[in-house]
Amino acid sequence: MSPTFNRKATARIPASTTNLGPGFDVLGLALQLYSTVTLEPSETDTEVIVCGVDADKIPSTPAHVAFQAVELVFHRSGAERPRGFKLQIENGIPAIRGLGGSGTAILGGLLTANALCGTPFSNPELLNFATELEGHPDNVAASLYGGLVVSAQEDAQVHTVRLECPSLLSIVLAIPDFPLSTEQARGVLPTSVGFADAIYNTSRSTLLIASIATRQFEMLRVAMKDRLHQPYRTSLIPGFDDVAEAATTAGALSVALSGAGPTVAAYCLEHTEQVAEKMQVAFKKHQIVADIKILKPDARGATVF
Prior knowledge:
By secondary structure, this protein is α+β, with helices and mostly antiparallel strands. It folds into two domains: 9-164 and 299-304, Ribosomal Protein S5, domain 2; 170-295, Alpha-Beta Plaits, CATH 3.30.70.890. It contains ten helices and eleven strands. Strands 1, 2, 3, 4, 5, 6 and 11 form a seven-stranded mixed β-sheet that branches. The chain has a four-stranded antiparallel β-sheet with strand order 8-9-7-10. A hairpin with a 6-residue loop joins strand 8 and strand 9. The two termini are 19 Å apart.
Protein backbone atom coordinates (compact mmCIF):
# COMPACT_ATOMS: atom_id res chain seq x y z
CA MET A 1 0.00 0.00 0.00
CA SER A 2 1.32 3.45 -0.84
CA PRO A 3 2.34 5.61 2.09
CA THR A 4 0.48 8.77 2.94
CA PHE A 5 3.16 11.45 3.00
CA ASN A 6 0.91 14.49 3.43
CA ARG A 7 0.33 13.95 7.14
CA LYS A 8 2.10 13.09 10.34
CA ALA A 9 1.59 10.47 13.01
CA THR A 10 2.00 10.68 16.76
CA ALA A 11 2.28 7.80 19.21
CA ARG A 12 1.94 7.98 23.00
CA ILE A 13 3.67 5.11 24.76
CA PRO A 14 3.63 4.19 28.46
CA ALA A 15 6.70 3.34 30.49
CA SER A 16 7.05 -0.13 31.92
CA THR A 17 8.50 -1.94 34.87
CA THR A 18 9.68 -5.45 34.17
CA ASN A 19 10.72 -8.70 35.82
CA LEU A 20 8.62 -7.82 38.91
CA GLY A 21 11.14 -9.85 40.87
CA PRO A 22 11.13 -13.44 39.59
CA GLY A 23 9.83 -12.96 36.02
CA PHE A 24 13.19 -12.26 34.43
CA ASP A 25 12.74 -11.14 30.78
CA VAL A 26 9.17 -12.51 30.93
CA LEU A 27 6.89 -10.20 32.95
CA GLY A 28 6.14 -6.56 32.27
CA LEU A 29 3.72 -4.00 33.66
CA ALA A 30 2.77 -0.77 31.87
CA LEU A 31 2.81 2.41 33.96
CA GLN A 32 1.01 5.74 33.70
CA LEU A 33 4.14 7.63 32.66
CA TYR A 34 4.50 8.49 28.99
CA SER A 35 6.70 9.53 26.12
CA THR A 36 5.36 10.87 22.83
CA VAL A 37 6.90 10.33 19.39
CA THR A 38 5.85 12.30 16.31
CA LEU A 39 6.95 11.46 12.77
CA GLU A 40 6.37 13.38 9.56
CA PRO A 41 7.94 13.30 6.10
CA SER A 42 10.39 16.04 5.17
CA GLU A 43 11.65 17.39 1.88
CA THR A 44 15.05 17.90 3.49
CA ASP A 45 17.44 15.71 5.44
CA THR A 46 16.26 13.78 8.48
CA GLU A 47 16.00 15.75 11.71
CA VAL A 48 15.73 14.11 15.14
CA ILE A 49 14.58 16.36 17.99
CA VAL A 50 14.60 15.18 21.61
CA CYS A 51 13.12 17.21 24.46
CA GLY A 52 11.82 16.55 27.93
CA VAL A 53 13.21 14.41 30.73
CA ASP A 54 16.91 13.49 30.43
CA ALA A 55 17.06 14.87 26.88
CA ASP A 56 20.79 15.41 27.34
CA LYS A 57 21.27 11.64 27.77
CA ILE A 58 19.46 10.73 24.54
CA PRO A 59 21.04 11.03 21.06
CA SER A 60 19.33 13.59 18.82
CA THR A 61 20.68 12.08 15.60
CA PRO A 62 19.55 9.38 13.14
CA ALA A 63 21.50 6.97 15.37
CA HIS A 64 18.56 7.16 17.79
CA VAL A 65 16.87 3.77 18.13
CA ALA A 66 13.48 5.31 17.32
CA PHE A 67 14.76 6.32 13.89
CA GLN A 68 16.23 2.86 13.37
CA ALA A 69 12.72 1.55 14.01
CA VAL A 70 11.31 3.96 11.41
CA GLU A 71 13.81 2.73 8.84
CA LEU A 72 13.00 -0.90 9.62
CA VAL A 73 9.27 -0.39 8.93
CA PHE A 74 9.85 1.39 5.62
CA HIS A 75 12.35 -1.26 4.55
CA ARG A 76 10.16 -4.25 5.38
CA SER A 77 6.94 -2.74 4.11
CA GLY A 78 8.47 -1.90 0.75
CA ALA A 79 6.93 1.57 0.97
CA GLU A 80 8.58 4.38 -0.91
CA ARG A 81 10.79 6.24 1.51
CA PRO A 82 10.54 10.04 1.56
CA ARG A 83 13.72 12.04 1.24
CA GLY A 84 13.83 12.75 4.95
CA PHE A 85 11.86 12.73 8.18
CA LYS A 86 11.22 14.98 11.11
CA LEU A 87 11.21 12.77 14.19
CA GLN A 88 10.34 14.47 17.48
CA ILE A 89 10.53 12.72 20.85
CA GLU A 90 8.95 14.31 23.90
CA ASN A 91 10.51 12.15 26.57
CA GLY A 92 8.66 11.74 29.85
CA ILE A 93 10.57 8.74 31.17
CA PRO A 94 13.86 8.91 33.11
CA ALA A 95 16.55 7.50 30.83
CA ILE A 96 18.63 4.41 31.62
CA ARG A 97 16.80 3.84 34.91
CA GLY A 98 15.00 0.54 34.27
CA LEU A 99 11.68 2.02 33.12
CA GLY A 100 11.64 0.90 29.51
CA GLY A 101 12.65 4.18 27.90
CA SER A 102 14.40 2.57 24.95
CA GLY A 103 11.40 0.31 24.40
CA THR A 104 9.02 3.26 24.24
CA ALA A 105 11.28 4.96 21.70
CA ILE A 106 11.39 1.83 19.55
CA LEU A 107 7.63 1.46 19.66
CA GLY A 108 7.19 5.15 18.88
CA GLY A 109 9.26 4.80 15.73
CA LEU A 110 7.54 1.58 14.67
CA LEU A 111 3.99 2.75 15.30
CA THR A 112 4.33 6.15 13.64
CA ALA A 113 6.14 4.75 10.60
CA ASN A 114 3.54 2.01 10.32
CA ALA A 115 0.79 4.65 10.31
CA LEU A 116 2.53 6.68 7.59
CA CYS A 117 2.92 3.53 5.50
CA GLY A 118 -0.80 2.77 5.67
CA THR A 119 -0.65 0.30 8.58
CA PRO A 120 0.76 -2.74 6.76
CA PHE A 121 1.79 -4.46 10.01
CA SER A 122 -0.33 -5.74 12.89
CA ASN A 123 0.55 -5.19 16.52
CA PRO A 124 1.91 -8.75 16.91
CA GLU A 125 4.19 -8.14 13.92
CA LEU A 126 5.33 -4.81 15.35
CA LEU A 127 6.02 -6.54 18.67
CA ASN A 128 8.32 -8.98 16.87
CA PHE A 129 10.14 -6.03 15.26
CA ALA A 130 10.42 -4.26 18.60
CA THR A 131 11.82 -7.36 20.28
CA GLU A 132 14.35 -7.73 17.49
CA LEU A 133 15.58 -4.20 18.17
CA GLU A 134 15.29 -4.29 21.96
CA GLY A 135 16.63 -7.82 22.49
CA HIS A 136 13.83 -9.04 24.80
CA PRO A 137 10.03 -8.67 24.75
CA ASP A 138 9.07 -7.77 28.33
CA ASN A 139 9.31 -3.96 28.15
CA VAL A 140 7.97 -3.52 24.64
CA ALA A 141 5.08 -5.95 25.12
CA ALA A 142 3.90 -4.14 28.25
CA SER A 143 4.21 -0.70 26.64
CA LEU A 144 2.45 -1.84 23.48
CA TYR A 145 -0.51 -3.63 25.05
CA GLY A 146 -0.81 -2.08 28.52
CA GLY A 147 -1.65 -4.00 31.65
CA LEU A 148 0.42 -6.92 32.89
CA VAL A 149 1.96 -9.04 30.14
CA VAL A 150 3.56 -12.46 30.09
CA SER A 151 5.82 -13.05 27.08
CA ALA A 152 7.76 -15.96 25.63
CA GLN A 153 9.88 -16.00 22.50
CA GLU A 154 10.21 -19.00 20.21
CA ASP A 155 11.64 -19.13 16.69
CA ALA A 156 11.82 -15.31 16.51
CA GLN A 157 8.11 -15.08 17.37
CA VAL A 158 6.88 -13.44 20.55
CA HIS A 159 3.87 -14.99 22.25
CA THR A 160 2.19 -12.65 24.73
CA VAL A 161 -0.78 -12.88 27.07
CA ARG A 162 -2.15 -9.70 28.60
CA LEU A 163 -3.84 -9.54 32.00
CA GLU A 164 -5.67 -6.66 33.61
CA CYS A 165 -3.80 -5.20 36.54
CA PRO A 166 -6.25 -3.60 38.99
CA SER A 167 -6.04 0.13 39.45
CA LEU A 168 -6.21 -0.21 43.23
CA LEU A 169 -2.56 -1.32 43.07
CA SER A 170 -0.06 1.55 43.19
CA ILE A 171 3.60 1.43 42.25
CA VAL A 172 5.96 3.69 44.19
CA LEU A 173 9.16 4.30 42.25
CA ALA A 174 12.36 5.48 43.88
CA ILE A 175 14.52 6.60 40.95
CA PRO A 176 18.20 7.17 41.85
CA ASP A 177 20.05 10.03 40.21
CA PHE A 178 22.48 7.74 38.39
CA PRO A 179 21.93 5.58 35.30
CA LEU A 180 22.53 1.84 35.06
CA SER A 181 22.81 0.39 31.59
CA THR A 182 21.27 -2.95 30.74
CA GLU A 183 24.67 -4.13 29.53
CA GLN A 184 26.25 -3.34 32.89
CA ALA A 185 23.40 -4.97 34.80
CA ARG A 186 23.56 -8.11 32.67
CA GLY A 187 27.32 -8.23 33.04
CA VAL A 188 27.09 -9.18 36.72
CA LEU A 189 24.77 -12.14 36.12
CA PRO A 190 26.00 -15.74 36.28
CA THR A 191 26.13 -17.81 33.11
CA SER A 192 24.17 -20.66 34.73
CA VAL A 193 21.94 -21.24 37.74
CA GLY A 194 21.25 -24.21 39.95
CA PHE A 195 18.22 -26.43 39.59
CA ALA A 196 16.86 -25.38 42.98
CA ASP A 197 17.07 -21.70 42.05
CA ALA A 198 15.27 -22.36 38.76
CA ILE A 199 12.43 -24.07 40.62
CA TYR A 200 12.36 -21.25 43.17
CA ASN A 201 11.83 -18.63 40.47
CA THR A 202 9.38 -20.70 38.46
CA SER A 203 7.19 -21.15 41.53
CA ARG A 204 7.34 -17.47 42.49
CA SER A 205 6.64 -16.10 39.01
CA THR A 206 3.70 -18.47 38.60
CA LEU A 207 2.36 -17.52 42.02
CA LEU A 208 2.76 -13.84 41.10
CA ILE A 209 0.60 -14.17 38.01
CA ALA A 210 -2.01 -16.20 39.87
CA SER A 211 -2.12 -13.78 42.81
CA ILE A 212 -2.69 -10.75 40.56
CA ALA A 213 -5.24 -12.59 38.40
CA THR A 214 -7.24 -13.61 41.48
CA ARG A 215 -6.62 -10.34 43.40
CA GLN A 216 -4.89 -12.19 46.27
CA PHE A 217 -2.41 -9.39 46.79
CA GLU A 218 -1.20 -10.65 50.15
CA MET A 219 0.68 -13.31 48.17
CA LEU A 220 2.95 -10.69 46.62
CA ARG A 221 5.25 -10.74 49.67
CA VAL A 222 6.31 -14.25 48.67
CA ALA A 223 5.59 -14.12 44.95
CA MET A 224 8.04 -11.30 44.13
CA LYS A 225 11.09 -12.96 45.64
CA ASP A 226 13.88 -13.82 43.22
CA ARG A 227 17.16 -15.72 42.99
CA LEU A 228 18.09 -15.31 39.33
CA HIS A 229 19.09 -11.66 38.94
CA GLN A 230 18.37 -9.40 41.91
CA PRO A 231 20.96 -10.86 44.30
CA TYR A 232 23.62 -9.91 41.73
CA ARG A 233 22.24 -6.63 40.38
CA THR A 234 21.48 -5.07 43.74
CA SER A 235 25.21 -5.01 44.43
CA LEU A 236 25.31 -2.18 41.87
CA ILE A 237 22.75 -0.13 43.83
CA PRO A 238 24.05 1.18 47.17
CA GLY A 239 21.43 0.90 49.90
CA PHE A 240 19.02 -1.37 48.05
CA ASP A 241 18.40 -3.66 51.04
CA ASP A 242 17.76 -0.68 53.31
CA VAL A 243 15.39 0.88 50.79
CA ALA A 244 13.47 -2.37 50.40
CA GLU A 245 13.19 -2.85 54.15
CA ALA A 246 12.06 0.75 54.62
CA ALA A 247 9.32 0.29 52.03
CA THR A 248 7.92 -2.93 53.49
CA THR A 249 8.09 -1.56 57.03
CA ALA A 250 6.08 1.46 55.87
CA GLY A 251 3.39 -0.76 54.38
CA ALA A 252 4.44 -1.90 50.90
CA LEU A 253 3.28 -5.37 49.88
CA SER A 254 6.54 -6.13 48.11
CA VAL A 255 9.60 -4.52 46.56
CA ALA A 256 11.55 -5.33 43.38
CA LEU A 257 14.04 -3.79 41.01
CA SER A 258 12.39 -2.10 38.06
CA GLY A 259 13.88 -3.83 35.06
CA ALA A 260 17.66 -3.87 35.37
CA GLY A 261 17.56 -1.03 37.92
CA PRO A 262 18.61 1.21 39.49
CA THR A 263 14.96 2.20 40.07
CA VAL A 264 13.34 0.40 42.98
CA ALA A 265 9.60 -0.32 42.75
CA ALA A 266 7.35 -0.85 45.76
CA TYR A 267 3.89 -2.31 45.25
CA CYS A 268 1.20 -0.92 47.53
CA LEU A 269 -2.51 -0.94 48.20
CA GLU A 270 -2.23 1.90 50.74
CA HIS A 271 0.30 4.03 52.63
CA THR A 272 1.91 5.15 49.37
CA GLU A 273 3.05 8.52 50.67
CA GLN A 274 4.67 6.95 53.72
CA VAL A 275 6.36 4.30 51.58
CA ALA A 276 7.66 6.97 49.20
CA GLU A 277 9.08 9.09 52.01
CA LYS A 278 10.82 6.16 53.72
CA MET A 279 12.37 4.95 50.46
CA GLN A 280 13.73 8.40 49.67
CA VAL A 281 15.18 8.77 53.17
CA ALA A 282 16.80 5.32 53.00
CA PHE A 283 18.53 6.20 49.74
CA LYS A 284 19.65 9.53 51.18
CA LYS A 285 21.44 7.71 54.02
CA HIS A 286 23.64 6.19 51.31
CA GLN A 287 24.28 9.62 49.74
CA ILE A 288 21.93 8.90 46.84
CA VAL A 289 19.31 11.40 45.71
CA ALA A 290 16.20 9.60 44.50
CA ASP A 291 13.23 11.10 42.69
CA ILE A 292 9.88 9.64 43.72
CA LYS A 293 6.90 8.82 41.53
CA ILE A 294 3.66 7.21 42.65
CA LEU A 295 2.00 5.65 39.63
CA LYS A 296 -0.91 3.46 38.64
CA PRO A 297 -0.79 0.66 36.05
CA ASP A 298 -1.57 1.77 32.51
CA ALA A 299 -4.41 -0.29 31.03
CA ARG A 300 -4.52 1.19 27.53
CA GLY A 301 -1.03 0.67 26.12
CA ALA A 302 0.37 2.59 23.19
CA THR A 303 -1.95 4.82 21.17
CA VAL A 304 -1.47 6.35 17.74
CA PHE A 305 -2.99 9.63 16.61
